[in-house]
Each structure stands twice: as C-alpha cells, then as structure tokens.
Amino acid sequence: MHEAIDFFFFLLIELHIQVVTINKPKTMKKQMRLLFSLISIIIFQSCSSNDPEPKPTPAPTPTPTPVAEFNYTSSNTYNLNVVYFVPNDVTPPKDYHRRLSEILLSTQEFYGKEMERNGYGYKPFGLLKDDIKKRIKLIVIAGSKGGAGYPYSGGNGAVQTDISNYRAAHPSEFTGDHYLVIIPATTYDANGEPGGVPFYGIGKYCYALDYADQDVKYLGTDGVLGVRATKWIGGMVHELGHGLNLPHNRQRFTSDSSLGMALMWAGNSTWGKSKTFLTPADCAVLNRNQIFNTGNDVFYNSVTAAVTTIQASYDSTKAAIVVSGKFTTSSPVTDVIYFNDPNVNSEGTGVNKDYNAISWTSKPIGTDGFSIEMPIVDLEYKTDNIPYELKVKLVHQNGNVTETIYSYTFLDGKPILNFSTRAELAKTGWSVASFSSEEATGEGATNGAATTLIDGSTATYWHSQWKGTAAVYPHEFVINMGSAKTVNGFTITQRSGLQRAIKNAELFTSTDGVNFTSAGTYTFANTNGSQYFDFAAPKTFRYFKIVASNAWDGTQFASLAEVGMY
Which helix or strand (DSSP H or E) is residue 226 part of? Predict the structure, then answer.
C-alpha cells in the first residue's frame, strides 16, 4: 500500500510540473482541482487504513469456445445408439459430426421409404437428432486402448467391453438395444485406402469406419473418392442392416430386376451410384424391430415356437413351389418368411454363405398357419442335384425370429421336395431298449438321456456321454415300439442349433430284439427340422437300432433330438 501512495505522489509532482509548464495562470487552478480529484479517487480505491493489505486478484480462467447446443429429439421410445469410438492414440478425422450426421440422416430416410414401399407406411428407425441443425446425437467414447487394441479381426470384443463400461456409467445416453459403432480408421495403405478396425455386424452391434473424406457429397461421383464413398458408406449401411437383425438375401432373379441391387446382398457396391433396395423379407423383420416402433412394447423376450406340420409340392401348371403348414408359438406371428438358399459350388451353408438366398413373405393364416407360392423362375440356380435349404422363418410380435430348415434339390429343372410332414406313428408304449451311452448330468435336467429320443419333443435331445470318460463313435441305441409295426420309412431330427449333429448312420431292424438286419446306410443332413428316409418297400418289425458312425463337426460326440417311424 505504501508503495502505491508514494507512486501517486510522484505522479502528482510530475503532473504539477507539466501543468505549470504548459498552462497559463488563469486556467491552472481549474486543472489542478481536476488532477487532485482524480488522484483522490485512485488512492481511495487502492487502499484503506482499516483493512489488511489485499491479495492480488487472479486472472480469470479462459473460457473454452462454446460448443453449439443441439436439441436432440425422437418420436420413438427406442433409438439407434450411434457411438463414435476413438482409440486413445487416434485423432478423429475432421468435421466428423457433420459428415456422419448427413450419412445417417440419409440412411434413416432410405429405410423409412423402403418400409413404405413394402406396405408398412413410412417407418424409419429411431434416431436422436436436431431437425433444424441437421445433426444426430453421437455418443463419443474414448477407448481404453490404442488402435492396435481394436483390430479388424476380433477387435469388436474389446470395443464392446469399453462401450458396456461407458453405458454403465452413463445410462441416460443410450435409448435402445441396437448399436452402430463408428471407429476412425487406424491404417491407410499406399493409396490412402482406410482400414484396420472392425467392419461387420454381430448380433445387435454393427461396426463401420470413418475417414476424412467419407462424405455424402462424393457419392455417385467419378474418381477415387467416389468409389471409396460408395464402398465405405454403402458398407456402413449394409452392416447396419445386420445390426438391425437382417440376414443376407438378394433380389429375385426376374421379378425384382427393375429395383436394382438388394442392400443385404451386394448393395454396398451400388449405394449412391444406382438403385439399391430392401426386400420384402427385410422389411417384415424391421417392422417388428425395437427401434422401428413407438410405444413401450417389450422386445426380444424369449419365444418358444415350432413348425408342427409342413406340406411342400411342385405345381407344374404354375411352375411354382407350393408350401403350407402349421406352427405353434408363445408370441404372436406377424409375418412368415421363406428363404431359398442354394449351396452353389459347395460354398456351404450358414452365416456369410447365404448372400444368394432368395426370399418370399406371407401373412400368417389365422394364428397358426402359413401358405406361399414361389415361382421357380425367380430362382437363379436350378442345376441337377444342387442342394437348397428352405428356411421357414416366423417373425414374432416381440421382434424375435425363429426358423426351421428343410432340404431339397433340383432334377431336370424341377424341385424335388421330400420334406412334407409324414403321418408318424404314435410313440405311446415305446421304450429305449438299450444305448451305448448317454450324458446323465452334464446337459441339464431335461436333456442328455436316451429317453428324450422318443418323448415327442424336438426341444429336448439325447447326447452321448462326455463327462468322466467320454464315449466315442460308433454310438448306438435300440428302440422297442412295443409291438410289431408295418412302416414306410423312418425320420430323425437333429438337435436344434445342430450341435454335435450326426452325419452318417446305419439302420437295423429286428422282430425279437436280438437278431438285427441292416435296412441301409444313410446320411443325415446338417439341417434343422424333420428328415424323412423312405424304404424301398414297407417293412414290418418291432425293434430298430441306429448306429451312428461320425459327426458333421468331426468330433467324437453325438446328439439327436428325435427319432420316429411313419
């Protein structure tokens, strides 16, 4: 304080000198009064004789540049969780919020219009967004690892762990069960092609990448950036389909030719360049997807369902496969889907082997029936002996989809359909006479025992012993039908999910349970649903024995859901 007073008196003297020097006596008095008033104010505000010496006032903390506020809203109860996941050693590409918002808003519009075209009304997926500022809500999450910790192969697990941890700490940021996870590319090749991160759909999660030039403005343009935009933006939209419960399927061979490319086939290669669409089967699934619906319905709770009977034939007049049947279900069915998946060039079956599956849909008949006609002109492959799987899928009110698979083939350009439900013999009075092994404890209270082979339920199954000393092939069991029966063939049903499915087996028959005669060797298909094997002529016997010699998975274990006669 004293230093300040000394300073002001020094200033007074200096100013007085200057005033005396430059002013005339007539005006000096007035200027001096003004000068002393100013000094008094300064001194009064600078100190007080009764207060301690004040501490210097710290400089104010710089205020960050304000971030634009967005008003994110949605008419849906559940919405797509769009996560921007950034490894801790990666700098996000420029302008990602705008670019990704424009991509996802156009994607949402595409899904909504395709639902409308397929008869469900304009019905896009839920997405939190600011309609005025054209931005979507991105949940930005910093990864716990560097880019190397989230590789393309297997990296999704580490990503999902970090997201789960973040959701546990910030539950209000998430409004649904479906995730689109976008990760900045961690590698670039010599030509600037991005990569290095997960890019696929697994369950309700799907993964895509981001790079600086991933922008809708390049879609449909010539050059590298246009090609790259179609590849990666189209790929994102395709993988999003998987994250929304959609399997692969393609356009029908003739009747869909004007629609372009089905998104869930190779639509990633046409996105933004030429026509791309969703099939009726896609839209039937999306119609009961959680984030495509308003209200507070409960989605994805467990369902018990089964196709109880099915009839299949070829109508030569209509040149069509005709399928009908009955089902039971614990959750109402909104649509029935029929996938015809050819095994082209021994490509195999299952996930990523179904790109060329061609589909149809129908509404259920009442609460438990279905029927469809499928013109074979819309099937591309009709060569002799080509294996086909017909997947009958029930779309349930709660969003789940259950399926039963049947096998057929072609001969002379016509489908050979031999999976129609037979009039099976009732199993009242049947018993298991003997078995080589069973798993008494390891498969739970209702499974593993040989008696499940004839309990009339395909939901239960027998399993060879694996606890303790594991049994090895061959595995066998003998069934006593209680009395002699005359039958036309036998049927088996693989365990649901095809775990430990039997491949090759031999059937033996007997009238006394002691002396058995071979009725032939058979190959059981690695498919769900009942399989029927006709005898060349009716046979009469009381006992039958099945001896399994190997498994589809190459292990020593065996499992079956049900056996029967018709």
Answer: helix 224-243
- The helix (H) or strand (E) run that includes residue 564 is strand 562-565
- For residue 356, the Cα-to-chain-centroid distance in whole angstroms is 19
Do 459 and 485 belong together in one domain? yes
Residue 404 Cα to chain centre, angstroms: 20
CATH number at 126 reads 3.40.390
Q: Are residues 239 and 313 in the same domain?
A: no
Q: Are 524 and 486 a contacting pair, CB within 8 Å?
A: no
* Sole residue written with tokens 């030509």: 191
Burial of 307 (0-12, 13-18, 19+ CB in 10 A): buried
In the 8-state DSSP scheme, what is residue 529?
Answer: S
Query: Which range marks the domain in which residue 558 is found?
Result: 431-565
Instruction: Estimate the crossing angle of helix 25-46 against helix 2-22, to 10 degrees.
Output: 170
Among 307, 300, 196, 289, which Cα is nearest to 244's?
Answer: 289
pLDDT tens per residue, range 191-249: 999 999 999 999 999 999 999 999 999 999 999 999 999 999 999 999 999 999 999 99
Can you tell me the distance from the alpha carbon of 525 to that of 529, in angstroms, rounded to the nearest whole number?
10
Q: Clarify whether residues 88 and 233 are in a common domain.
A: yes
Residue 497's CATH number: 2.60.120.260
- What is the rounded (10 degree) CA torsion for 522, 527, 528, 529? -50
> What is the CB neighbour count within 10 angstroms for residue 36?
13
198 and 344 co-located in one domain: no
Are 82 and 139 in contact by the 8 Å Cβ rule? The answer is: yes
Q: Return the pLDDT at 346.
A: 78
Same domain, residue pair 227 and 182: yes
How confident is the model at residue 106, as a pLDDT? Answer: 98
Maximum distance among all Cα pairs of the chain, rounded to whole angstroms: 146
Which run of H or of E encompasses 101? helix 96-117
In DSSP terms, 188 is beta-bridged to 194
Q: What confidence score (pLDDT) does residue 68 get?
A: 56
Q: Which helix (H) or strand (E) holds 150?
A: none
- On whether residue 425 sits in a domain, the answer given is no
CA distance 149 to 140: 18
DSSP per residue over 301-325, as a string? ----EEEEEEEEEEETTTTEEEEEE
**How many domains are there within the chain?**
3
Partner residues linked to 478 by β-bridges: 434, 545
Whether 410 is covered by a domain: the verdict is yes
Going by C-alpha positions, the residue among 561, 555, 563 that lies closest to residue 466 is: 555
Q: How far apart are the first and last CA of the chain?
A: 111
Using the 3D structure, point to which of 269, 292, 315 is the last residue of a domain: 292
Which regions in the chain score pLDDT beneath 70? 1-68
Report the SS3 class of residue 3. helix
